[in-house]
Design goal:
heterodimer, A: alpha/beta, 2 domains, 22 helices, 48% helix, B: alpha/beta, Rossmann fold, six-stranded parallel β-sheet, four-stranded mixed β-sheet, 5 helices, 12 strands, NagB/RpiA_transferase-like (chain B), LUD domain-containing protein (chain B), FTHF_cligase-like_sf (chain B)
Amino acid sequence: MTTFLGMPATAPRGVGHLRGDQTFPQAAHDALGNSQLRRNLRHATTTIRGKSGKVIAELPDWQSLRDAGSAIKADVMARLPFLLEQLEEKVTAAGGVVHWAADANEANAIVTRLVQETGSSRVIKVKSMATQEIGLNEALEEAGITPVETDLAELIVQLGDDKPSHILVPAIHRNRSEIREIFLRAMPGVDPALTDDPPVLAAAARRYLRETFLSTKVAVSGANFAIAETGTLAVVESEGNGRMCLTLPDTLITVMGIEKVLPAWQDLEVFLQLLPRASTGERMNPYTTMWTGVTPGDGPQNFHLILLDNGRSAVLADTVGREALHCIRCSACLNVCPVYERTGGHAYGSVYPGPIGAVLSPQLTGVADNASLPYASSLCGACFDACPVKIDIPSLLVHLRNQVPHPAGERAAMAAAAYTMARPRLYANAQRAAKLARIVGRRGRGLPPPLSGWTAGRDLPEIPKQTFRDWWAARDSGVGER
Amino acid sequence: MSSRELILGRVRAALRDAPVVAEVPRDYRPAGRSADVEVLIDRLVDYKAEVHRVSEAEVAATVAELVGEGGAVLVPPGLPQAWRPAGAFADDDLAPDRIAAADAVLTAAAVAVAETGTIVLDASPDQGRRIITLLPDVHICVLRPEQVVAAVPDAVARLDPRRPLTWISGPSATSDIELNRVEGVHGPRHLHVLLLPG
């Protein structure tokens, strides 16, 4: 037993939302048939690309900021044990309580216990990828605690009994008229005369949540950044629901992946320039809250910080793959990805969709549990260009493809091909056999089963009348075709 | 073994290759450039904040005019008396419903960032507890020109991380419906900035 302790571990099965029920090609097939979804996604991603490009162009030093962001994150990974201990020390000194959660089950149990200790049966939540990842809402509901999502898009997802499909805008797959229908159906006390005008929809959410904000004693949040040097946490948001959750309740519980720590206060000058411009395409997001432990008389008087592993140590153990932990969850890579734009986020099966999800999810779970995701890309490289911390996602995808376990049939075929190609005589015979097949068989673009899967998405090249070897052998005799 | 030891042990094991990291290149524009108030105004207006250039003596009257007759204006305990309109009430550990009932809140600020159109509050006595600038629907913020800095690095350098900080860029907004920015969700739906002369 002791030999296993301390070994990097992947995220456990049976809890959380890192694994889908279907492979990516199966799920994408369904999504591609939904023309409304594709219209919504195209509209939304086109809008955000335009906005983001415009505000990034305003900064003459954007590339230098990316270089700095990338280097700071590499430094964080290299010094992670020290930085986590420093963060713990500083948060504790400022009046917070630090907990460590090895996986989703432990994190859910800690949050549930902390909420139960307050006596509250309801928590307000500010949008957080980490709590989505660990399936916290389900765990709380199981314990009889009602989690209320307060981010507008998360609320749309929760009221619609739906799943998030984008890191930044979980309801990106819904347009305004669909949102209106969800509100009319599921929002208690909603005005039946509700229109689909976005300001009207936003006002409906404001009215619905105001009383909940004022009467709930516990909030759960994630964290965008945590500063080891000072113990300061930061949450970046737009609507003010974050400020409500981080300011009004008596108790605040923050769940944070261990990779989110930053060394120094000064490092925020880089990330507060990178994140909003890459993410929502704004010079700055409307609200950012920063707090260090507990401030007497201002905000929550009980602060708990939960540091979550849940597979991150396994990602860190891959010297190439660890770059995926640099992600600051801006979602720029989703917005530029031609695959994401067509399939949407649900096809990826994990709370982390798009290009970054295709490299992060398989590493958090172990590649075997998300084996189709490293192939969910055309390797066009747009994600690499868009990433504010310069994660080389295409190279990571190729790296992970090399780790994907292949089916026995495919392995046997590849081994046979390798054997044949290494032996010139066998290879020449095989080519002749292929030529024969051209004469005997009907011309087709697909292979017969069980190899038909390979040609379902690509054409089989036609076998030429003459092989290169035949042409080479015949070129002096005047027989060869030119 | 505690989870703390378990996680730290895993992380140390994951780093057995002992990655060496080069010094962080900080070739971006550093703190220290001079701030342009006109840029700040442009950015504030672009994000739907309203900017009023007034003298210090005109603050109280301007606030009264913005709030309208009989409007209840909440102020933090340390706000200069001269800025307070008649009938303003100071936060004295008020209950949330009293704060929410105010028609507007009037505060000072700690720093403003010209390049991003951002105002930062640091909960000093002239800005008050975080809750008072959150619940009222109108936030009026008085800014002195020497508080305006050029860009984000200048603001980070000036601020004290031990204080609770709120960075505000325009009124409450969302991009959650078709990724278009819509002003007005949970925070104040109106932000007025009163910019004092240098």
